[in-house]
Amino acid sequence: MPAASVLIDGPSELVFDYEIPAHMPVALGCRVRVPLRRKDATGTVLAVHATTQSSFQLREVSALIDPEPLISAQMMKLARWIATYYVAPMEQVMRALLPESVRQDMHSEKTRKVVSLMNMPEEEALAKLAKRAPKQHAILQLLHTAPEQTMALKDLGGSSVSGSIKALEKHGTVTLKNQAVRRDPDEDEEFLESKPLELNPEQSLALTAVIEQMESAKPKPILLHGVTGSGKTEVYLQAVQYALDHQQGAIILIPEISLTPQTVQRFKSRFASVQDEVAVLHSHLSQGERFDEWHRIRSGKARIVIGARSAIFAPVMNLGIIIVDEEHENTYKQETSPRYHGRDIAVLRASMEQCAIVLGSATPSLESYQNASAGKYLLIPLKLRADHQAMPIMRVIDMKLESQKQKGRIAILSDKLRVSMEKKLTNGEQVILFLNRRGFARSLQCHDCGHVCECTHCAIPLTYHRSEERLICHMCGYQSIVPKKCPECRDPAIALQGYGTQKVEEVLKKVFPSARMARIDADTMRRKHALRDTLGKFKAKKIDIIIGTQMIAKGLHFPNVTLVGVLNADLGLHVPDFRAGERTFQLLTQVAGRAGRGELEGEVIIQTFTPHSPSVQFSRHHDFEGFAQQELEFRQQFTYPPYGHCALLGTRSTHERRAQFTLENLHQRLQKDLPAQIQLGEPMPSPLTRAHDQYRFQLMLRASSARSLSNHVRAVLSQTPPPEDVHIVFDMDAIGFF
Ligand code: ADP
Ligand code: ZN
Asked: Residue 340: helix, strand or coil by DSSP?
């Protein structure tokens, strides 16, 4: 008898074998109902065996939930890879792969009642009917002229005509049926079709290269490195059109739908004539909408899928191309288990399905850039702005000098920025002020000489821990006392960095009492539609100055903004994260892309305590290659990614001691038989020591081989079940260290 290995739904990660009853087409990737002890359970078929190996009698699969496998063999392979690489339970990977509504098949299709005309009576009979039953006659007249001679019952009058319909049905004149209707999330939106633009020479070359890979039997990933406004999106659109023309599907990943509505709209408009071919997957879909969209994709009705990272699991058949827009964005990393990186999974899926993949960015991640430099990816540059706008002028202000001028106070606004703001506001132009805020990690910086206390072993800033009055390195665990004076220049001006948007607003209100301003940060944007409303007002010029955090760095297009001020470029630089420099460079480049989007020339003013840092200098000169080269040297020296893998192991618990003890215990076990190429850090409190009432501890692991790192951690974790009230987090290729 053939048997199936079934992964039972639920946190326990149980796998049992069941006999497959005759005539039940159970296959790999099917969802099934099975008996489990005295209950019923649901699960996913992980494997099918021709004969049972078990010596005792197996119980039978009780039912197939879906007639066909929901997960293809290829997606199953991808799932296994994710579970192994990220050390995640397979059951959690399955949950990431299939939306809950699809897994449970709980939202069967939405239907409506429709009436169809079957036999139109002869004229004579009709005339009689008109006299005898005018209602029935009217219904037939309506149906006769309706498309496909079918109408919704509701449109015929609903329950008020049900008697007449019943009578007509009895004579076989009409039929009443249930028809599936799609729950369309964008039902009330209209998209005007946009025509393809004529590509400029750079774009043409890029598209040709993409198509070449789409036609290749063994396509190479493409890194499309195009400056902001170079027209990458137009290249994506035309590549997707090519896929459609060749009966292929496409997946377009974007970092976050709510922050990039313009990209979605551009796709919807371009493919407006084949509107049903486009499925947009985002977090605001209802369960029912998600169910419908998933099945529309699965059945091949929708061949273009746009969505955030989880859209990489969309069941698109015959994939022609995957596009990852803004591939450097951190939002592609999933923050709960399975902690996969959407871009990396996209590259993997493309290679499994042998389809083309384009990673696009103005500031590629160093991982992708290194892959391109090493010849694994094709690098295609777009160096010119498609809209012929000039890059904005960038000025760098040394805040150490400002700080000396404004002795005793935190310098928030430099003289240069203030004067420039005055000028723009007088001209009726708009200003964006950008405050670089990175959470809770606080470093010490001298406001006189700019010195930042760093770990000599790891070259990252030390993090201040108030409870211990210590500076701690979050890579290796090195600790030092908190200096009272700057170790470099002996000035007592050394202080914790940081202030918030509220503080900035206070200062601005004094300096520009009549300016209209708004704050955009996580606090002020909590209300639904708050971001949209504020940006709407800004567009309508009802606001002069926007003060915002990272939230406003991306994708916004305001022609009347002629000045962007970055208040504290440093804050992002001095966090305990080796990617800090890269992030700051990306952010400054993106922010600069917000200035001068219209006819007016743009200006960017960057305030910093470290004006000579590479992130500041290279972004100022729009020099990505220069930055990448220098940053890669630094990464290589310390074997940081892309020259090695970095992972974080953490514990969380409401019991501080138990969280700490569990991690120390894991640390000891990891140390035993530690493969030579793995570097194991010390356990320590996380920079965010406590969140949601949970104490957090963590340690870092580094290794040149990801596989040996995953394997070692998996082995230790499986032998060391944590106490019930301690939660363990393992983040392979972690991108944030908090
Ligand atoms: P990116 O995605 O690289 O930031 P966009 O695709 O947003 O750039 O393009 C920037 C602007 O240039 C858009 O307004 C777009 O309509 C325009 N554009 C793109 N390609 C062309 C082209 N070939 N001809 C004219 N305008 C173009
Ligand atoms: Zn260190």
From this structure: coil
Under the banding of pLDDT at 50, 70 and 90, the label for residue 231 is very high
**Tokens 């963590």 found at:** 698
- Peptide bond between residue 364 and the one before it cis (omega within 30 degrees of 0): no
Q: How far is the CA of 475 from the centre of ligand 2 (A)?
A: 5
Ligand 1 within 6 A of CB of 270: no
Does ligand 1 lie within 6 Å of residue 384's CB atom?
Answer: no
Parallel, antiparallel, or unpaired: how do β-strands 470-472 and 463-465 relate?
A: antiparallel
Q: Domain 3-103: which CATH class?
A: alpha beta
Q: What is the DSSP string of 67-134?
A: SS-SS-HHHHHHHHHHHHHTT--HHHHHHHHS-HHHHHT-SPPEEEEEEEE--PPPHHHHHHHHHH-H
Is 225 a pocket residue for ligand 1 (Cβ < 6 Å)?
Answer: no
Lowest mean pLDDT, pick from 488-492, 665-669, 675-679:
488-492
CB atoms within 10 A of CB 350: 24
**Sign of the CA dihedral 703, 707, 710, 711?**
negative
* Sign, CA torsion 61/67/70/72: positive
pTM beyond 0.85: no
Structure tokens at 188: 């009330």
Q: Residue 49 corresponds to which amino acid?
A: H
Q: Looking at domain 645-732, does it have CATH number 3.30.70.600?
A: yes
Which residues are within 8 A (CB) of 151 and not within 5 positions of it... i.e. 6 or more apart? Answer: 114, 115, 142, 143
Return the HEC string of 251-291.
EEECCCHHHCHHHHHHHHHHCHHHHHHEEEECCCCCHHHHH
**Ligand 1 atom 19: the closest Cα is on which residue?**
231
What gap in Å lies between CA 94 and CA 44, rounded to an integer?
8
Is the minimum distance from the CB of 226 to ligand 1 under 6 angstroms?
yes
- CB count within 10 Å of CB 719 equals 8
pLDDT of 363 reads 94
Whats the size of the chain, residue-wise? 738
Q: Are 47 and 28 in contact (CB under 8 A)?
A: yes
Show me where the domains of the chain are located. 3-103, 111-180, 201-382, 393-440+499-622, 645-732
Q: Out of 3.40.50.300, 1.10.260.40, 3.40.50.620, 3.40.50.720, select the CATH number for domain 201-382.
A: 3.40.50.300
Tell me the torsion sign for CA atoms 461, 368, 614, 570. Answer: negative
Arithmetic mean of pLDDT, 447-472: 79
pLDDT higher than 80, residue 21: yes
Q: Which of 252, 270, 387, 554 to mutate to test ligand 1, by most ligand atoms within 8 A of the CB atom?
A: 387
Question: Ligand 1 centroid to 226 CA: how many Å?
Answer: 11
Give the helix ranges, DSSP H, for 277-432: 287-298, 342-353, 366-373, 399-405, 415-426
User: 678 falls in which pLDDT band (50, 70, 90)?
Assistant: very high
CATH topology of 3-103 equal to that of 393-440+499-622? no
pLDDT of 142 strictly over 90: no
- The mean of the pLDDT values for the chain is 87
- Alpha helices by DSSP H, listed for 160-200, are 162-170
CB 203 within 8 A of CB 382: yes
Distance between Cα 472 and ligand 2 center (Å): 8
pLDDT in tens, 261-311: 678 888 989 998 888 899 988 777 888 888 889 999 999 999 999 999 999
Is there an atom of ligand 1 within 6 Å of 197 CB?
yes
Q: What is the pLDDT of residue 179?
A: 75
The CA–CA distances, whole Å, from 467 to 218, 471, 481, 687 equal 56, 11, 12, 11
Topology annotation, domain 393-440+499-622: Rossmann fold (3.40.50)
Is the distance from the beta carbon of residue 231 to the nearest atom of ligand 1 less than 6 Å?
Answer: yes
